[in-house]
Amino acid sequence: MSREIIQTDHAPQAIGPYSQAVKVDNTVYLSGQIPLIPESMELVTGDINAQIRRVFDNLSAVCEAAGGSLNDIAKLNIFLTDLSHFPTVNEIMSEYFAEPYPARAAIGVASLPKGAEVEMDAVMVLNGQV
What is the DSSP letter of 36? Predict the structure, then answer.
């Protein structure tokens, strides 16, 4: 079993004692991403659309650093402080992912780090890279 820590400057640095992602053999466990701008580590300004897009961009950057893409994600977890944004997540997700879509959960939570309204984490499987 091989274990590799994934890190990229194209996604926000960890704001606690964790890694952006950990690759074990051909499976990559991506830590939760909130809508932080990597360069400033500040929350993106704007409505929920901007926050959701920033989170997908951050996840994408970590996927790429691990040698994959969003389309290699097998399981996506979405955490929302307001589940009324669920249709917006669906709409934007369809712009970032191609079918077949990953397995997914959407969970309503009371709060998220730094006052974010959305956070996502994922499990990615890289084909043919054992």
Answer: B
Identify whether the C-beta of residue 36 lies closer than 8 Å to the C-beta of residue 24. Answer: no
Q: What is the mean pLDDT of residues 29-47?
A: 96
Partners of residue 57 on adjacent β-strands: none
Kindly indicate the confidence band of residue 128, based on its pLDDT and cuts at 50, 70 and 90.
low
Q: What is the largest CA-CA distance in the chain?
A: 43
How far from 122 is each of 1, 40, 42, 47, 92, CA to CA, in Å? Answer: 20, 24, 22, 23, 17
Tokens of 58: 């951050």
**Two structure tokens written together for 35:** 């809508």
Could you give all domains of the chain from N- to C-terminal order, each with its CATH number?
Answer: 3-125 (3.30.1330.40)
Distance of alpha carbon 107 from the chain centroid: 14
**Model pTM score:** 0.94
